[in-house]
Specification:
β1 and β2 form a beta hairpin. It is elongated and about 60 Å long. It starts with a strand and ends with a strand. The protein has one domain. The protein is built from 2 helices and 15 strands. The protein is mostly beta strands.
């Protein structure tokens, strides 16, 4: 079994710091599935990775979608329950629920008005449908239960967001980036690296 560490790049008042987590055992995300046995003796396939779409800023300032793969490892954090496949911990600061009325953002879509994310964050769609178009024209549809990450804070070309005729409720889980700026520490990014 391969091992992974989580490496985070953090901007601090006197330069950059890199933090690396302790080892977590498990297989790297390679499409294979590990096996676990429950208390009843049944064997179930466990995923070794999860993926999610991310809006990121390309070197030219344009925004794009990419798929991010996050490795999972078997963790037994609630004995005597059987282990579950979990990712490494990722820092978060605040959460916010946001309810958007029907057709919110449709006029921005129609006029081609882009905006930046106010903070780097994960977004979970609680209800309704939301669509996001990046500056390269790629448009994706997100519905209840979908998770995505937006990293296109200013300066970048941004994205366009609009919701459907039924409105939408989203849950924002902000990265430490914005809160850290006020304290002089800015979380930039984390990567899972093989060791």
């Amino acid at each position: 079994m391969a091992k992974t560490r989580t490496a985070c790049l953090i901007a601090v008042p006197r330069g950059l710091a890199i933090t690396v987590s302790g080892l977590t055992g498990g297989t790297l995300a390679d499409g294979a599935q590990s096996q676990t046995t429950t208390a009843s003796g049944k064997t179930h396939a466990m995923p070794t990775e999860v993926t999610y779409p991310q809006v990121y800023v390309a070197p030219d300032g344009g925004t794009r979608f990419r798929e991010v793969k996050v490795p999972l490892t078997l963790v037994n954090n609630a004995p005597p329950s059987p282990p579950s496949a979990q990712s490494a911990l990722v820092p978060a600061t605040t959460i916010r629920h946001a309810a958007y009325p029907p057709n919110w953002g449709a006029s921005d879509r129609d006029r081609g008005v882009f905006h930046n994310a106010s903070s780097a964050r994960f977004i979970t769609v609680r209800s309704g449908v939301a669509r996001i178009r990046t500056s390269d024209g790629d448009t994706r549809r997100f519905q209840r239960g979908d998770v995505l990450e937006v990293l296109d804070v200013a300066p970048s070309k941004g994205h366009i967001t609009w919701v459907g005729a039924e409105g939408a409720v989203l849950l924002f889980s902000n990265h430490p980036q914005r809160a850290g700026i006020r304290r002089g520490v800015t979380f930039l990014e984390c990567h899972w690296i093989p060791v």
